[in-house]
């Protein structure tokens, strides 16, 4: 059953070992305040304890309108730095945790909402989703990791265009720009995200950990360093008892084969 946290900013529900985490401030379009960030942090910790994967979605008509601008208006420069560093820490707990996160996006995926989505590992958008970085229009800059994560997904040129001109991308454009990996019909994003989360949750935990932690780090390494690290991770994962059992299951014809698309 859905279970709202103390502050009600986030709902939490465990389905088939998949945590469904809902941003729950629809009257403010799920804009993220300081308390809201702390609630997300608590929920990240709970999911890490209980779930094998997470689906992150927004209640109401939008995924997330980003930073709570009403709260931000009164901040000193140092409060702004601390706030941004806190977002970094909480979002890093998602990106570099131990389980995969799939975001299900609809409506506005804007500013800090896009930064939050960028810290998840797979993004599914329905056709109502739209993507923007209106920080320049608000007189501010990305502070939730966007200059690192969104720039790595979409490229600096796309991000610069979005930030300088206020360009708003459709779900289809966001897929072409590598911001999202799947586009589905309106209302279908959470169902698709759950299906993907179940697929990811059926992998060996250590492989998932390696995928979500090693790939982004290796991408930042020099080629030879990346290859060196890859060998160690490959050898470590392949020599676990779970890998031995999974490899044996395949050879004994007890495990599913890879199927060509469109075949059953
Ligand atoms: C908010 C916020 C918010 C809505 N902070 N209160 N983000 C933005 O610049 C996006 C600002 N929001 C919008 O452009 C629109 O609200 C939406 C396109 C997301 C949705 O439009 P709509 O017509 O459905 O809703 P609305 O009527 O604009 O907003 C409903 C209420 O939510 C309204 O409050 P009310 O008291 O008048 O009912 C809005 O003020 C409130 N609301 N968005 C506070 N963001 C770590 S750095 C990250 C930097 C950023 O994220 S910058 C981008 C901020």
SSE order and pairing:
Elements: E1 3-4, E2 10-15, E3 18-23, H1 34-50, E4 53-58, H2 69-72, H3 77-95, E5 101-105, E6 108-110, H4 112-118, E7 122-126, E8 130-132, H5 135-138, H6 146-154, H7 156-165, E9 169-170, H8 171-176, E10 182-184, H9 189-201, H10 205-219, H11 223-238, H12 241-251
Parallel strand pairs: 3-4, 4-5, 5-7, 6-8, 7-10
Antiparallel strand pairs: 1-2, 2-3, 8-9
Helix pairs in contact: 1-3, 4-6, 6-7, 10-11
The chain binds 3-methylmercaptopropionate-CoA (MMPA-CoA).
3-methylmercaptopropionate-CoA (MMPA-CoA) binds next to α2, α3, β6 and α5.
Give a short overview.
This protein is an alpha/beta fold and 264 residues long.
Architecture overview:
The protein has helices at residues 34-50, 69-72, 77-95, 112-118, 135-138, 146-154, 156-165, 171-176, 189-201, 205-219, 223-238, 241-251, and strands at residues 3-4, 10-15, 18-23, 53-58, 101-105, 108-110, 122-126, 130-132, 169-170, 182-184. The strands form two sheets. A seven-stranded mixed beta sheet has the order 1-2-3-4-5-7-10, with helices on both faces. Strands 6-8-9 form a three-stranded mixed beta sheet. It contains twelve helices and ten strands. The chain is globular and about 65 Å long. Helices cover 50% and strands 16% of the residues. The longest helix is centred in the N-terminal third of the chain and has 19 residues, at 77-95. The two termini are 33 Å apart. A hairpin with a 5-residue loop joins strand 1 and strand 2. It is α/β, with parallel strands linked by helices and 264 residues long. The structure holds 3-methylmercaptopropionate-CoA (MMPA-CoA) (1HE). 3-methylmercaptopropionate-CoA (MMPA-CoA) binds at residues 28-29, 31, 62, 65-70, 84, 87, 108, 110-112, 134-135, 138, 140, 142-144.
